[in-house]
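Supplementary Methods. Inverse-folding protocol.

Structures were first reduced to a discrete structure-token string of length 495. This string, shown here, constituted the complete conditioning input.
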């Protein structure tokens, strides 16, 4: 297949680094004055930094499946954190492996089901998340939802933020780094180009970190949320999320909020140190090919903004992700136009010398935008949330400077995220924004049948609950990917 026009390099090595639950707002490369992340700052300083990149679902597994396949979550049945990705759906690992790339995965990808590779030729460590259906939500009977207790325990954990001994997640990410560094040293300068995907669990909650990283922020002023309480009247998705997490009963103090934010910033520094080790090993490997380095997260983190924590909504800190592309022919600069993780697959095809349109997915290559080539007006960005916490589908359309959010059965929200980045002013009642609201609502209605989508989600949940019950009876046969030499306390398991 022919390469896209304007290519500056062919078949380089590709290093894709992914964080978990990292909002760009909290990185120095995006203007945060407190966090310390020198390796990511250096990477951003020499590459293209996307200022309006979005996940297509603010939840781990659906976001990652969408990123891997270049397709919207509902188009591939990726509804929640217990959804299986079909082995028949090609990922960017399949596409690049056919092209001759050595495709390697190190770390978390939240694969559910018996296929724990999805096109990756090698996997250096098993997943920290369980591969079974145990986390399936229950929209039909929310009071019996098995995920609610997990969400409420996570919320209570915010009040316990602070210094901890080595956590499960740190043990896992330490393993990810060690095995990645070893693989890079052993890979040498072989002929095949590689796609090495390195995926860390930090700075995902719980907000606990070792003394070493906590103390890095001893003299740094920990900022408080810009909007600590939600603007009133409370929108329906926020009301439901506050209820299901128990935030109204939790009543976090200002000192508890600052402690959680300090631990989160410290976790970013820990992540950055691990990334520094990987980048040093890449330099020391002596590869003759050039390398394109991409940094991204699966979704963001509210960190107390609007009285919310974690993700599962389409406000900016939950739905936006950092995206940095650093490589030959890509000048340093900022890219303001909205993009999404759907664009990653065609971008990787473009980097590898393939036609980015060949996969037939709705995204577009970002190389032109990364190189400062402004084309036609950027297409709208779509997002959807079909997982735990809510019991109705919620969707998002970002077009230009406007963002439209709609949950089935509730009033829609409309924000100008350029003029109002904290999303304090809902424009749905504004006469001046009436035309824009109608246009974005029309896009959403054309894209989704929310009633039909809810029926599909509930039916899928019912099937998976039955399968999980059956497979948990008698002698279980876990789907987790087996690798040797791992401590048993490095991952979470239901069975």
């Amino acid at each position: 297949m022919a390469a896209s026009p304007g290519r500056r390099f062919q078949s380089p090595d590709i290093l894709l680094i992914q964080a978990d639950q990292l909002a760009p707002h909290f990185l120095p490369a995006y203007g945060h004055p407190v966090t310390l992340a020198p390796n990511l700052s250096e990477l951003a300083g020499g590459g293209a930094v996307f200022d309006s990149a979005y996940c297509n679902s603010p939840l781990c597994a659906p976001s990652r499946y969408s990123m891997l396949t270049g397709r919207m979550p509902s188009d591939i049945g990726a509804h929640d954190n217990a959804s299986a990705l079909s082995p028949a759906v090609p990922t960017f690992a399949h596409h690049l492996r056919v092209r001759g790339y050595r495709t390697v995965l190190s770390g978390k990808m939240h694969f559910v089901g018996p296929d724990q590779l999805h096109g990756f030729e090698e996997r250096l460590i098993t997943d920290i998340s369980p591969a079974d259906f145990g986390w399936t939500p229950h929209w039909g009977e929310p009071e019996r939802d098995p995920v609610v207790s997990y969400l409420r325990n996570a919320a209570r954990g915010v009040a316990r933020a602070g210094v901890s001994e080595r956590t499960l997640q740190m043990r896992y990410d330490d393993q990810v780094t060690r095995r990645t560094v070893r693989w890079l040293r052993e890979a040498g300068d072989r002929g095949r180009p590689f796609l090495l995907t390195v995926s860390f669990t930090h700075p995902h909650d719980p907000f606990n970190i070792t003394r070493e990283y906590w103390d890095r922020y001893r003299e740094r002023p920990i900022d408080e949320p810009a909007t600590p309480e939600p603007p009133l009247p409370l929108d329906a998705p926020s009301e439901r999320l506050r209820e299901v997490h128990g935030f109204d009963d939790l009543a976090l103090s200002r000192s508890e909020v600052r402690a959680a934010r300090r631990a989160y910033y410290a976790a970013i520094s820990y992540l950055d140190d691990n990334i520094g080790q990987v980048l040093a090993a890449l330099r020391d490997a002596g590869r003759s090919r050039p390398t394109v380095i991409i940094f991204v997260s699966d979704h963001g983190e509210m960190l107390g903004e609007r009285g919310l924590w974690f993700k599962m909504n389409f406000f900016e800190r939950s739905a936006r992700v950092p995206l940095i592309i650093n490589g030959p022919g890509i000048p340093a600069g900022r890219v303001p136009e909205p993009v999404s993780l759907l664009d990653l697959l065609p971008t990787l095809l473009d980097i590898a010398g393939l036609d980015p349109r060949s996969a037939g997915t709705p995204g577009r290559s970002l190389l032109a935008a990364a190189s400062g080539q402004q084309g036609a007006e950027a297409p709208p960005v779509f997002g959807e949330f079909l997982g735990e916490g809510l019991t109705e589908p919620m969707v998002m359309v970002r077009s230009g400077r406007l963002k439209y959010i709609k949950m089935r059965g509730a009033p829609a929200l409309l924000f100008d995220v350029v003029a109002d980045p904290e999303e304090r002013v809902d424009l749905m009642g504004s006469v001046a924004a009436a035309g824009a609201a109608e246009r974005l609502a029309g896009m959403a209605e054309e894209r989704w049948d929310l009633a039909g989508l809810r029926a599909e989600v509930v039916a899928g949940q019912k099937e998976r609950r039955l399968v999980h019950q059956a497979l948990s009876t008698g002698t279980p046969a876990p789907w987790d990917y087996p690798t040797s030499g791992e401590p048993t306390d490095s991952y979470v398991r239901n069975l």
